[in-house]
Amino acid sequence: MPWRIPPHESKSGKKPDPYKIWLSEIMLQQTTVATVKSYFIKFITLWPTVFDLAKANDNDVMAAWAGLGYYARARNLLKCARIIVTDLEGVFPTSLKELQMLPGVGPYTSAAIAAIAFNFSETVVDGNVERVMARIYAITKPLPSSKPELYECAKRITPKQRPGDFAQAVMDLGSTVCLPRNPKCQICPWENKCQANQKDIAQKLPIKLKKPPKPTRYGIIYVVNREDGAWLLERRETRGLLGGMLGWPTSEWSEKATEDAPITTKWVTSTQSVHHIFTHFKLNLIVKISRCPTHVKPKSNKFSFQSDFVISDLPKLMQKVFAIALTEIKKNPALKKQGSNCSN
After folding, report:
1. Residue 166 domain flag
2. What's the CATH code of the domain at 261?
């Protein structure tokens, strides 16, 4: 991993960069290593130190984060960097208590930073570690009620020496060997000590309670292309889903789609709708497209030329919408002549 110090270098005394460990751990919250790698490299290239990140333009950071999801993490990333630079003179705190006072740093992230960056013997437990512990100790109590027991199991075997290497090794074991399905028990270094393997129940653990189905919300999203090529965009409120991100104007997302068009016009409704899954609900959006003359002024928001923004810097939801809108514009002659139907 680009943020890690190899075990042999760690053993010889080389220390990780706390900035890189913190950045990687924030990115890895609810996101896979495979997804995070390229984003981490991009951030380190653009902002190689916490001082660089603290000085960064908010919109640039949000754009660089686009596609990684859970956008509150990006906002907290900036807040945290600025606190560390302004209040702590660029020095990361080392204790769990102090780390957890930083925006976006909870119990897991603080333990990971303390163990990996500062070599403190803290217990680091993510989903991979929970699975390894559940199998080693054959814990059949279902998640999430078994979380405290799994934590205590991990705590018992966390060493005083090189706890960061140990934490990363167990997480790697869970992600590459002790897999959710078809665990590779025959190559696991703990094969003979694993109680679940001995009882032939490794495949079944950890047991998880079935989650209730996610509710579905509905809305309408509006794509407006002005005759001079500009697009109508909105900067979403800082709080809430996709907070602070650039995108197309939408209605509220609720149990029923209701109109809230940004301009008065004749809209073309795409035959394709957009489906997107958030953590707590599914979203279905009707896509409406219009083309307007240059004199039109929207209720709010503003028109931007495509040279002023990058489509790949938009959230994935907005990228899906744009792809549908482009397809509709290409195949629908009305959208090339429709300017006279728009008004402010």
Report:
1. no
2. 3.90.79.10
CB 249: neighbour CB atoms within 10 A?
21
Nearest-5° angle of CA 162, CA 166, CA 172? 145
Domain housing 251: 216-341
pLDDT tens profile 228-268? 889 999 888 877 788 788 899 999 999 999 999 998 888 99
Domains held by the chain: number: 2
Whether residue 239 is contained in a domain is answered as yes
Q: Same domain, yes or no, for 108 and 225?
A: no
24 near 40, Cβ under 8 Å? yes
User: How high is the pLDDT of residue 341?
Assistant: 43
Task: Report the CATH number at residue 108.
Answer: 1.10.340.30
In-domain check, residue 180: no
How many Å apart are CA 223 and CA 158, to the nearest integer?
A: 53
pTM beyond 0.70: the answer is yes
Per the document, the length of the chain is 344
Catalytic residues: 25
- Confirm if 309 and 59 have CB atoms less than 8 A apart: no
Give the model confidence (pLDDT) of 135-166 as tens digits. 999 999 999 999 999 999 999 999 999 999 99
User: Which residues on adjacent β-strands are paired with residue 275?
Assistant: 284
Residue 220 sits in the same domain as residue 331: yes
User: Of 73, 101, 120, which residue constitutes the final position of a domain?
Assistant: 120
